[in-house]
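Hi support team,

I'm filing this because I wasn't sure whether my run with zinc ion finished correctly. The job status page said complete, but I'd like someone to confirm that the output block is well-formed before I use it downstream. Pasting the exact inputs I used:
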Amino acid sequence: MNGNLRVGNLFGIPFYVNVSWFLVLALITWNYGSALSGAFPTLPGTLPWLLGLAAALLLFSSVLAHELGHSFAAIQQGIGVNSITLFLFGGLAALEKESDNPGGAFKVAIAGPVVSLVLFALLSTVGQVFALGGPVGAIVSLLAYINLALGVFNLLPGLPLDGGNVLKAIVWKVTGNPYKGTAFASRVGQVIGWLAIGIGTAAILRISTFGSSWTLLIGWFLLSNANRSAQSASVQQRLDGLTAQDALVDNSPIVAQQASLREFADEVLLNSTGNWQRFLVVDTEGQLVGTISE
Ligand SMILES: [Zn+2]
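And here is everything the job wrote out:
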């Protein structure tokens, strides 16, 4: 991906952040810092903004914990994790490959939301048990809410969201065909994308008070990803069961091994119809020995 900076390793997994992440970090710091300084006017000097920065970093740690959930579930199945990247819309754990069975795919998909919901439960409990008030209490309850939102939003049952991968695994299990799972979960993802675009547009046009321009942007992001996975599922479905034989072109030009390059140029290259770039070279028995390119 473009614009990603490597910041280190986490449990042996290369960890990247997208440059857009710094913009979001600054925005959240500023936004939450001003909210804290408004709510707690006694906080001295730059302290509200330092707390805002801490809240922003903890927020991104929550996204990271979610991605580590997916990663550990994959590693448990012997699937390597190439990288974890934080970007504008959240995080992405890039797995070396997909699970080879629906049960495994289900576990990888559900692990992220499970981590988020467990963090929500933990943070809410901590806030309740210690009766946290003041700015620390505010940050803990913000983080609890963020983790709840991360868990619930990602469980929406359409690709590219985790819930879409859960749905895909279920359809895969029922039909025995992974591509049918992807195709179905992509369709639902497209519906969710269009719904979000509709809600965002209605909010921008002030037809409704629910949603914002962010809803529109997220809808567009979901829709374009769902379109892509729908497309790849239909291509893979069509390619499944086909062999190289099916893609073979019968009349490829053939060059005898002992032909001189002069003969090759005169007889084959100049006479060949149909824009060939590569010619098959055979020995006296007609066995393929290699190719020669223009
Ligand atoms: Zn996830």
